[in-house]
Amino acid sequence: MLRDKDRFLNILLISPSILAVFIFVYVFIGWSVRVSLSKWKGLNPDYTWNGIQNYLELFADPRFHVDIRNTLIFTGVFVFGSIFLGFILAVMLDQGLKGEGFFRSLFLFPMAISYIVTGVVWRWLMNPATGSRTSGLNLLFTNLGLDSLVNAWHTTPTWGIAAIALAAIWQMSGYTMVLYLAGLRAIPQELKEAAQIDGASRLQIYRYIMIPLLSPVTLSALIILGHMSLKVFDLIIAIAGKQLPLDVPAIYMWQITFDGLFYGKGAAIGILLLISVAVLIIPYIRHTLKTEAQQ
Asked: Fewest C-beta atoms under 10 Å: which of 23, 127, 194, 246?
């Protein structure tokens, strides 16, 4: 009887959270799906059935093609750069570096900064101006005699979005460093010692033992960073504003919904973003749950 009472109280305590999640997540997702299938244009709601026409128009829209290309470039540069730099930093700290706590905090600190602040700082660092207006990294390269490295950064045609990814790498590489450092510390020391006794070099130990054992960490980093890159918005706005060469789906959704008042098409972009994130997250969650069940 007492156990039933405790169960009832537990359900009663969490029911407000369950109700809030149901309403503000799943109900609004369902409502967005319905809007994406409507002809809603303008401030007055219009739920006239439009089928998948909004989606077909998006896939035929040249601007949306630019958005997809920019998202792929940003995701590739951002995810690979963050994982690579984070792994290198983790390996360095794993060597028993003096002052490890300070450097760990230093590398992780950028993650505590919002993308807006990061964008403002990197907008100055990547100032594409030349001559007397040169500043940031271009000024540093000029003073060091490295004029070949001076470039237009995010104003470069086609690959300007990759320059913005550098700011995201700076912010999130510390996070991947923490993931890898935790993974390295979890590997038994006996494996390293056995490999050293067998004559393996330090490079071989990392290549054939450490990196394969860190594959779950790498998978987690890929999922987390990948879904973040798909939703990027504020970093690009803070660095470059609204520019077509640097357009991504989130910016297009904002403009077409709140500037153009095409709520149906804007909702369609939102649903496509949700699906793209779900494609990454759901298999990872299933794999994690399956692994935990087997253990």
From this structure: 23
Domains of the chain: 37-294 (1.10.3720.10)
pLDDT at 288: 75
Average pLDDT over residues 97-122: 88
The sign of the torsion formed by the CA atoms of 146, 152, 156, 162 equals: positive
Distance from the Cα of residue 217 to its chain's centroid: 16
Q: In the 3-class helix/strand/coil scheme, how is the chain assigned residue by residue?
A: CHHHHHHHHHHHHHHHHHHHHHHHHHHHHHHHHHHHCECCCCCCCCCCECCCHHHHHHHCCHHHHHHHHHHHHHHHHHHHHHHHHHHHHHHHHCCCCCCHHHHHHHHHHHHHCCHHHHHHHHHHHCCCCCHHHCCHHHHHHHHCCCHHHCCCHHHCCCCHHHHHHHHHHHHHHHHHHHHHHHHHHHCCHHHHHHHHHCCCCHHHHHHHHHHHHCHHHHHHHHHHHHHHHHCCCHHHHHHHCCCHHHCCHHHHHHHHHHHCCCHHHHHHHHHHHHHHHHHHHHHHHHHHHHHHHHC
Query: Which bin fits 241, alpha (ψ -120 to 50), beta or left (φ > 0)?
Result: left
- Using CB atoms within 10 Å of the CB of residue 145, give its burial: 0 to 12 exposed, 13 to 18 middle, 19+ buried: exposed
What is the residue type of 231? K
Lowest mean pLDDT among 30-34, 201-205, 228-232: 201-205
End-to-end Cα, the chain, rounded Å: 33
Residue 152 class from Cβ within 10 Å (0-12 exposed, 13-18 middle, 19+ buried)? middle
Cα–Cα distance measured from residue 60 to residue 56, given in angstroms and rounded to the nearest whole number: 6
The whole-model pTM stands at 0.88
Supply the pLDDT for residue 1.
55
Q: Given CA atoms 11, 13, 14, 17 in this order, what sign does their dihedral have?
A: positive
